[in-house]
Design a protein that fits this description.
The protein is α+β, with helices and mostly antiparallel strands. The protein has 6 helices and 3 strands, in the order H-E-E-E-H-H-H-H-H. The chain has a 3-stranded antiparallel sheet. Helix 1 packs across helix 2 and helix 2 packs across helix 5. 34% of the residues are buried.
Amino acid sequence: MVYSEKVIDHAQNPRNVGFIEDADGMGTCGDPSCGDFAIVTIRVRDGQITNCRFLVRGCSAAIATCSVLTEMARNKSLREAQEITDAAVTAALDGLPPEKQHCSNLAATALHAAIEDYRKRHRVDLHDWRTPYLGSKR
């Protein structure tokens, strides 16, 4: 298998490894009991991802895709980050071997799940006019 220089760099020197305590959103992808598994946590301020971190168990390609994904998602609006695709992650690494393409799915899917988690946690009930005023005091 031949990896690009970017894949090797991100696999050997992963960026943004870790878990954000009190994250605004958390997403997972994969099966922790067998195979690759990723957790992505995000911090959101004013509709923009200000911090993005990951934990992953998997091969070098899985580490690299999660690492580059965090760089791609930082400072993006939620809408822009939601549009990050598997193909975009692969392209940012100058490609992956065909047998490792599924690793880009791991990273992008975990990010999308984190964004969905954020939206669920911060959804305002528009049918209850008191929600914006009372917040969690109800």
